[in-house]
TrEMBL record:
SUPFAM superfamilies: SpoIIaa-like. It comes from Streptomyces griseoloalbus. It comes from the Bacteria. InterPro entries: MlaB-like_STAS, STAS_dom, STAS_dom_sf. PROSITE patterns: STAS. Pfam families: STAS_2. Residues 16-103 form the STAS domain. This is Anti-anti-sigma factor.
């Protein structure tokens, strides 16, 4: 996936953005910004790429993500549930709120591994 950046519409209006770039050395992407209403379509494309890819492990580096809304968390879980057996998403350094949501609502989902390192 090439670099993708999305901002809320409107000339000269600063707003939510999501930047996505490939990770070097492994299958996956580095994501920065906010995962919310204005950037949800970008997040959905990222997750679709992860599901369609052939990697047994797909990395989502989220250390520069500042916010994930409930729809973004739900989309992550839905993507993980569509993975073939034995495949998984490794979510690296997600925002604390996303970690809590995953631990609370989906504690035993084997297709998502949360890594804090």
């Amino acid at each position: 996936m090439s670099d993708t950046r999305h901002r809320a519409p409107g000339p000269g209006i600063s707003g939510p953005y999501l930047t996505v770039r490939p990770l070097e050395g492994c299958g996956g992407v580095h994501v920065a910004g906010e995962i919310g209403l204005a950037t949800h379509s970008i997040w959905e494309r990222v997750l679709e790429q992860a599901v369609r890819g052939g990697e047994s492990v797909y990395y989502l580096e989220l250390s520069e993500v500042t916010f994930v809304d409930v729809a973004g968390a739900g989309a992550l879980v839905a993507a993980a549930e569509r993975l073939e057996d034995g495949r998984r998403l490794v979510v690296r350094r997600p925002p604390q709120a996303l970690r809590r949501v995953l631990e609370t609502l989906w504690p035993h989902l084997p297709a998502i591994e949360v890594s804090t390192s």
